Amino acid sequence: MLRRIIGFILICVGAWLLIRGWQRKDSLLGSISETGTKIANRFDGGTRTPTHVVYVVGGGLLIACGTVLTLSKRKG
Q1: Consecutive 10-residue averages of pLDDT for the chain (76 residues)
Q2: How far is Cα 61 from Cα 2, in angstroms, rounded to an integer?
Q3: Which of 3, 8, 31, 34 is deepest in the core (most CB within 10 A)?
Q4: Single pTM value for the model
């Protein structure tokens, strides 16, 4: 039972992060961040990622982990 509660919490937090990342991507701040990242990467060859990409990927991973915890059955 505790495993399912933790899984549900992970799904909720992941969905919140995914929504926040998507909103940031579409905002003015997100487009400025993406442009600044592209310029900085071209200038020095670094591999920076905008913050909204981290939010979307992190949210997706939390949703996947939460789904596995919620739907998995305990063995033993």
Answers
A1: 92 96 86 86 82 92 95 74
A2: 20
A3: 34
A4: 0.81
